[in-house]
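Input (structure):
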C-alpha cells in the first residue's frame, strides 16, 4: 500500500494543532487513494508526538530526534524529507500552509522534481491524479487543478480541513530514520526564540475581531500629551473596544492594511493579501470597508459579520450578517450582551 506523508509541525517538543488538520485531510484522501497516512515527525520529542498523531488518525510514523533537528531549520529538515520522499515514493506529501510548511514543502518539492499546490481548500484522488481546489485572483474565484506524476506536494489552507476526533486508545507503528546532514553541513544556527505573550495566533483562531480605518472615529477625547490625535484615538479604540469583545469571545485581534499602515496596530495583526490569510469560523469586521486586498485574506471565513457606517461598503457583499452603524456605539452593546449571555 502506498502512503500519504503528512508533516507534523512542532515547536519546542510540542505539535502545532494545525498539524492535526493536515492529518484529517490525509485521512479523507486515503480511501480513494488506497493509501495509509504516515506522520513525518522530526525534532525534539518526536516519539511522543508520533503517538499523539496516532490519536488523530495516523497509522504509522517516520520519526527522527537527531539534535540537528531540535529546532526547525530548512537545510536539515528539507534534506531528510526529500530523501524519504525519493526513497519511498509516497502517494502525496501534505502539510498545513504555515510559514514553515511553505518553506519546507517548496524546498523538498524542488529537490524531488515534484509538483506543488498551495492554499488548497479541497482535494480528491482520481487514479494516479490528485485533484485540488484553491483560490485565485485574491480569492474571488476557485481554481480546480490536477497534479500528476510521482509524489505531488500539497499545502493546505489552515482551518479548511477538520481534524479527526482524538482517540486516546489508538496506536501506530513508528520507524526511526537517520538525519541526512551533520551539524557542520548546516549553515543556519538557532540562538533563541522570543515568544509573543498573551495573544492568540491569527492562523489558529476560530474567531477573529478585526478593526480598520474606521477605528480612528473614536469619540473619546485624546489627552493633551497624546501626540498624533488620530493614531491615539484608533489605538485606544483597539485596546478598549476591539480587545474587550475579543476577550469575551476568546478571539484573536486582526486589522486591515489601512489600520496597520496608519500605525494603529502592529503588522502582526494584519489580515489580507499582504498579511495573514485566515479561515476562522467567525470573522467580525469593524470599520473595515472591504478592499479586495483585505477580502483576499478573510473571504473563506465560515461566517462574516460586518459593522460599518457606510451601507455601501464592499464588506457587506461578503458578510452573512451586517450592521450599519457606528462601531463605537455598536460594539460596547454587543460586548456587554455577550458577557451576560456567556456568563463572563
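Output (sequence):
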Amino acid at each position: 500500500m502506498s502512503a500519504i506523508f503528512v508533516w507534523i509541525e512542532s515547536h519546542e517538543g510540542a505539535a502545532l494543532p494545525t498539524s492535526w488538520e493536515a492529518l484529517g485531510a490525509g485521512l479523507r484522501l486515503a480511501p480513494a487513494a488506497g493509501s495509509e497516512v504516515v506522520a513525518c515527525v522530526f525534532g525534539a520529542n518526536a516519539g511522543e508526538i508520533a503517538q499523539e498523531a496516532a490519536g488523530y488518525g495516523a497509522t504509522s510514523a517516520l520519526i527522527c530526534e537527531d539534535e540537528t533537528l531540535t529546532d526547525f531549520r530548512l537545510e536539515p529538515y528539507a534534506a531528510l524529507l526529500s530523501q524519504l520522499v525519493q526513497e519511498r515514493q509516497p502517494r502525496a506529501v501534505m502539510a498545513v500552509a504555515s510559514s514553515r510548511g511553505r518553506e519546507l514543502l517548496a524546498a523538498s518539492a524542488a529537490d524531488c522534481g515534484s509538483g506543488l499546490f498551495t492554499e488548497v481548500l479541497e482535494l480528491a484522488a482520481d487514479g494516479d491524479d490528485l485533484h485540488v481546489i484553491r483560490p485565485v485572483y485574491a480569492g474571488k474565484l476557485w481554481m480546480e487543478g490536477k497534479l500528476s506524476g510521482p509524489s505531488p506536494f500539497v499545502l493546505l489552507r489552515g482551518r479548511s480541513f477538520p481534524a479527526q476526533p482524538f482517540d486516546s486508545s489508538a496506536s501506530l507503528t513508528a520507524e526511526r530514520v537517520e538525519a541526512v546532514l551533520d551539524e557542520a553541513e548546516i549553515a543556519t544556527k538557532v540562538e533563541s526564540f522570543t515568544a509573543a505573550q498573551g495573544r492568540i495566533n491569527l492562523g489558529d483562531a476560530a474567531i477573529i475581531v478585526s478593526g480598520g480605518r474606521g477605528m480612528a472615529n473614536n469619540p473619546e477625547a485624546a489627552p493633551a500629551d497624546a501626540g498624533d490625535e488620530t493614531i491615539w484615538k484608533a489605538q485606544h479604540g483597539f485596546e478598549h473596544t476591539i480587545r474587550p469583545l475579543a476577550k469575551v469571545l476568546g478571539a484573536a485581534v486582526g486589522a486591515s492594511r489601512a489600520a496597520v499602515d496608519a500605525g494603529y496596530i502592529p503588522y502582526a495583526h494584519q489580515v489580507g493579501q499582504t498579511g495573514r490569510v485566515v479561515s476562522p469560523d467567525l470573522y467580525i469586521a469593524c470599520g473595515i470597508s472591504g478592499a479586495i486586498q483585505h477580502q483576499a485574506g478573510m473571504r473563506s471565513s465560515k461566517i462574516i459579520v460586518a459593522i460599518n457606517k457606510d451601507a455601501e461598503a464592499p464588506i457587506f457583499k461578503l458578510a452573512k450578517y451586517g450592521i450599519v452603524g457606528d462601531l463605537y456605539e455598536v460594539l460596547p452593546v454587543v460586548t456587554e450582551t455577550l458577557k451576560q449571555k456567556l456568563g463572563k
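Notes: The mean pLDDT is 94. The longest strand covers residues 35-42.
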